[in-house]
User: Fold these one by one.
Assistant:
Number 1:
Amino acid sequence: HLGTDRAVALAGGDTGGAKTHIHYLLSGISKNIDAVLVCFMRGEFSDEAQELGIRTVILDGNVLNTLRKLKTMIRQGGFEIIHSHGARGNFMACMLKHVCKIPVVTTVHSDPKLDYLGRPAAALVYGTLNSFAMQRADYLIGVSDSMKNLLIERGYRPNNIFSIYNGVDFSVEPKNADKLAYLRNLGLDLQEDSVVVGIAARLDPVK
């Protein structure tokens, strides 16, 4: 966390791996620094963050009011770094960077060019704003080496890009069921010596 004691994280209503990544990240770093999560809507993302004990603020007004409230919160709270996630969070962080004069770190969870697949209008507006914001972030974090390499190929500064893998909370006791019975219940015709290979991902065209 660049030696800071106070950080603010900006995120929308992310789901899937991005949500898990942000929750694990904040649950961990909140033990050592004063960190607050700012969400731009109330929902599953913010509710689960609060259940995990993450200090969470909901700012679901218009852009100008949200920026004003964030600027006041950052200055009064003495926050030293902004960590943004998602197009809206990245754009807000970009605007705040010039006003609050603090560094911005942006985590890239997916290929920005595919985030609005099948929605050309959203890609034109939000995709362009996101690209503008990412180019002005002080540091970019890819959630894998392939994401880091993708960002470098897209022309982002290599020395300012890092890979940080999604964390796994091993303190949670796994609920282990009988593997063969579970897989057969899903409709798979398996034997004791069958080798099963798979990947967990959202059922979404981007994936």
Number 2:
Amino acid sequence: MKCRIADFNVEIFFNHPFLSEQCREYAYDFETADLNVRIDREFVKEELERSPVESNEESYEFMLAYRVFADMLPTRGAFVLHSAVFDVDGVGVAFAAQSGTGKTTHMLRWKSLLGERLTVVNGDKPTVRFFEDEPYTPYAYGTPWNGKEHYGCNMRTPIKHLCFIKRGEENRAEPLDQSEAISLIFNQAYMPSVPEQAAATIKLIDRLLKS
């Protein structure tokens, strides 16, 4: 299947129709692929047997496709940030938090307040990408991997605000400096196992914080 994800031409070779159904919104015809995502069926079965989480082969293939896609991004100026990203009047806001903390709930509260001014870009795993002609403008993209609620769409927004959410007894917001944000963002960034890609991810995180 040919897709356009985060402004990359991505060809995905799949075994189950579930993956193509999830990527339907991103279908795009092209001649040359920037990224090739191949998922071997035997590898899916082996990984599924080792997984502590109950799943089926179709869903697990979809998840592995995400990992293969994310592993290839950093040396191309992009990485995956575990967060909920939305756009308000052309401005991107990212809510990052540990799973189950409430970033999606918080985002939906904003949606109820702002209505059609707010568009959800990705509720779980947006791609953050930089371009050489805009070295300090991080763009967040919708991807097919947008959480169990499937909040998101095929668009991008420039990230202007990054918020880390944690549970508390009262509602309050505090500014963070870069040194405080480093450990928080490292916990939410997808870190590839290949050293070259991991090193590139660290540089992109640094660029994001300087933005």
Number 3:
Amino acid sequence: IRRVGSGASRCKRVRVKLVQIDGKLPNLALMQLASWHKARGDEVVYTRETSHELFDGDFDRVYGSAIFKFSADKIARLRHTYPDAIIGGTGSDSTRTIEDVIGGEWDERDYSLYPAYAPSLGFTQRGCRLSCKFCVVPGKEGKARSVMSIADIWRGEGHPKRLHLLDNDFFGQPEDQWRARVAEIRDGGFKVCLNQGINVRHLTPAAAEALASMEIRDDQFKERRIYTAWDNLKDEEVFFRGARMLVDAGIKPRQIMAYMLVGFDKKETWDRIWHRFNRMVAFGIEPYPMVFDCRATDPERYRALKQFPRWVVTGLYRAVPFSEYDASKKSKREQEAVTGDLFA
């Protein structure tokens, strides 16, 4: 790959390849890069393939973006195909940012990479107040802070008033800022999905009431849904304190989905897993187990744990005891279910 200058004065048209290595949602980094290159008259090709494709031709620059650590094989394949590819994201070992690559700030996004995607995607805040050992957010983004208004994120007239916010700690930004975002969402008649989850451990009654006042939806914008997480048994009391705040604010327990990290704590037992699961089910919360990728250190444990989320997210836990569940005989519903690993 031949490197080219990024200055506005250059006249050579550059051919660029953008590779989305993983992830189901549109990739914001690639959307920004596409917009930046197109603004300079460059040709941009988007793909999810990490190998050469028929009629590919040559590229002056290749970018890859990976979210998950389990995409290491795909990253290696892309590097083999394009040794000088610029690869970033939480799934890679690179700390380079878009600003590092293009030499400055660029917030424009090219949605033409994803013509079937209707919502507007973005962040109102970055960073997090917590420092969970399994999470990369504090190290990559630092402390919680405000970054964009709803007007900055929404694609504008002619597009649905649906916002898919990727905030990791929406209420971690200064209170005057999150209140302003809530007012913008509510007054603008937006439906919003916060599927990265609300930090229930630091939830306040005011924040719970703000959530209840908005049209909060799941990632398909069909059902009312609040996403949160219960990852450690020691957080039991504070987790249910926050859950009760949500209910007191008018949110039904069945409208709460809690990501449930399993497999990270080496001392974790099945009894402790079942305790968290059963408490949430009894409260009316929908658990969503996510297996930490421990294949490299304990593959046997990983294989055993992987059956658990399949049994839960398909809803089979309501009808089939886990002891009778056979993961090798997947139902049609299970085959269509979305399961995944929490990135390391």
